[in-house]
Amino acid sequence: MALKFHIKTYGCQMNERDSDSASALLIAHGYLPTEDENEADIVILNTCSVRDQAERKAIGKLGIMKRIKAERKHMIFGLMGCMAQSRGEELLKTIPHLDFVIGTDQIHSIPDAVEQILNGTGSKLDLRERCGADTPGIDMHRTDTIKHNAFISIMRGCDRYCSYCIVPYVRGHERSRNPESIVEEARELVRHGVKEIMLLGQNVAAFGLGRHAPNLPDDLSPFADLLKEIAKIDGLERIRFTSPHPAYFNKKLIETIAAEPKICKSIHLPLQSGSDRVLKKMNRPYDVAKYMHIVNSLRALVPEITFSTDVIVGFPTETDEEFNMTRQVMNDVGFDNAFIFKYSPRQGTVSARMDDDVPQDVKEERNQILLKDLEERQCSKNASLVGKEYVLLVDGPSKRNPKRWSGRTDTFKLAVFEPKQEIKAGDLVKVKIVRATPMTLYGEVVE
Ligand code: 5AD
Ligand code: SF4
Predict the structure, then answer these.
(1) 243: preceding bond cis by omega (within 30 degrees)
(2) How far is the CA of 56 from the centre of ligand 1 (A)?
(3) Which residue lies with its CA nearest to atom 2 of ligand 1?
(4) Which member of 113, 219, 314, 413 has the lowest number of beta carbons within 10 Å of its beta carbon?
(5) What is the DSSP letter of 136?
(6) Distance (Å) from CA 250 to ligand 2 centroid
């Protein structure tokens, strides 16, 4: 009988994508996926290291796995992802119930690792970095769970070395995939019914540039070229991407986003800080003026465009005044969504050598202030959308009330509605917004 596997994913969309391709590889090798980790013969944790909290969650789960494995001795237990890469060697030595550790660039070798353990010949650790980004299996997707939206990893690693960030150390050098293979992967997904594709990478706007310095000439953007190629695919309705670094966001990319109707008018653009001094200490090679130029240029071309961002509060030496600059920029841009993080030092990064001098309660206070601003803004922004009409890409029945269905606007607003006609997930439906809460819009289908 085929062995069953379960992959539990922590962290970002990149990890979700990696788990999906690892699952597709295991299925191709004859293993069966299960949603229930209690009946799995093989359990793999796909871990995240980007913030301290993410690592602590995975460490907690490692402890729980010890108990589970004591009861189910035949179970194979493995680690993949960023924490596997950064701490795998140490964890394999200290955690006897851990069978294998596979680094971020060796996902294709997971079926081999499982096989070797089953055969008792276990090579249990593989943390090598590959030179290219087109690793075997990177384009494989589970076809049994495919929906109308899918992710494609277009590059691996990151060479930006923002001073707080562990990613370049755990995901290796920045390597872009071959554009033809990405377009082929997108075509294949569309053949399976996919309507919306999210392009993923740690530094997507630097796609195809090799070691080209940031602050590009106006007319050079291989990423914009890739977006245009993908947009030509018939049957694909929407393209999203995450995350672009502002320093690579040039005129060509701005104009491409504005001109191409399939590129969603909702941009995630990490700001990190609204203080030029702090940005410099973060090794982020742009200033607030450049950031605002990108936002204003896009808004001038596409007035309805929405923005979301990542910011860090309490970076070493951040003063109250500098925090207030971040708050001010956030209000000036009027982000529709923001992920706000309290700074935590990550081992091996440049800022980990700086004194983590902003007290925890100050970080917490700054975090709460930004969250409150965001909620107020979301409330008034959503209220202002009542009466407007939007096209939704339908997700399916809403989780809270299955009589209602939900979908997203091109600008990434979630809207719920009562379906009138025969509709299915992946359809495009026009609704008029009749009511709004901070997080949700309520729409009526327009005939
Ligand atoms: N502390 C807090 N937040 C961090 N991020 C990355 N590293 C750290 C850190 N050491 C945040 C950044 C990044 C997001 C994915 O995580 O805002 O954009
Ligand atoms: Fe980390 Fe900066 Fe690379 Fe993003 S661009 S992954 S924050 S080093």
Answers:
(1) yes
(2) 15
(3) 343
(4) 219
(5) T
(6) 18
